[in-house]
Q: What sequence folds into this?
């Protein structure tokens, strides 16, 4: 009986050291999991900001081209060819019912529908990203 108690005491001593090591190891793993989650959140936030920046560049180019075309329509001076605005260069193709504006940077094509000499609606086509 005394021998069993001594074996149990030795086992508990060993387990105690293991319990403390296991506790530190679990805290270590928890800290790294928390750090990994924070890094993943930062990466996703950065990707979102980059996508918003690209979307804003497209929107700025679209609005500038549409404003330029609207001014040409008001002056009744719409002609096919390369057009320059303050920050956008685009090629304009004219027909009776619609206009096609091919913007160079960022690459995009606007198809603008006309109704009674005014802009009725437009659709934009963006190239698929490579990779």
A:
């Amino acid at each position: 009986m005394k021998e069993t108690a001594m074996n149990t005491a030795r086992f508990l001593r060993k387990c105690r050291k293991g319990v403390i090591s296991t506790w530190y190891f679990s805290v270590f793993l928890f800290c790294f999991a928390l750090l990994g989650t924070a890094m993943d959140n930062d990466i996703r936030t950065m990707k979102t900001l980059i996508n918003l920046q690209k979307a804003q560049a497209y929107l700025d180019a679209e609005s500038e081209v549409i404003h330029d075309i609207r001014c040409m329509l008001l002056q009744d001076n719409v002609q096919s060819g390369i057009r320059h605005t303050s920050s956008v260069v685009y090629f304009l193709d004219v027909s009776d019912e619609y206009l096609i504006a091919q913007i160079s940077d960022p690459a995009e094509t606007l198809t603008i529908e006309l109704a009674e000499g005014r802009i009725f609606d437009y659709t934009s086509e963006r190239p698929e990203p490579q990779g």
